[in-house]
Amino acid sequence: MAKYSFKCADIGMNCGFETKASTKEELMPLIANHAKTAHSMNEIPADVMQKVNSAIKKSLF
């Protein structure tokens, strides 16, 4: 089963946040909630969302 992961540091943020989920659909709300609570982003700007999508890693474990 694939796992998806994201780290804020991978998009250039000075932040230690890391999260994992079984699907991208499960991962995105975790990222959005973190962006809102830790980075005061009520909405993730399109340019940041593009970076987020590029930084999501897929592993088979």
SSE topology:
Layout: E1 3-7, E2 18-21, H1 24-39, H2 46-55, E3 57-59
Care to describe what's here?
By secondary structure, this protein is an alpha+beta fold. It has one domain (3-59). Helices cover 43% and strands 20% of the residues. The chain has two helices and three strands, in the order ββααβ. The protein has helices at 24-39, 46-55, and strands at residues 3-7, 18-21, 57-59. A three-stranded antiparallel sheet has the order 2-1-3. The radius of gyration is 11 Å and the shape is globular. The model has no long low-confidence stretch (mean pLDDT 94).
Largest beta sheet, briefly? 3 strands, antiparallel
Total number of strands: 3
Radius of gyration: 11 Å
* Tally of separate helices: 2
Apparent shape: globular
Residue fraction in strands: 15-25%
The succession of helices and strands, N to C, reads: EEHHE
Q: Which regions are unreliable across 5 or more consecutive residues at pLDDT < 50?
A: none
Report how far apart the termini are: 6 Å
Helical percent range?
Answer: 40-55%
Mean pLDDT: 94
As laid out across the biggest beta sheet, the strand order is 2-1-3
Main structural class: alpha+beta
Work out the count of structural domains: 1
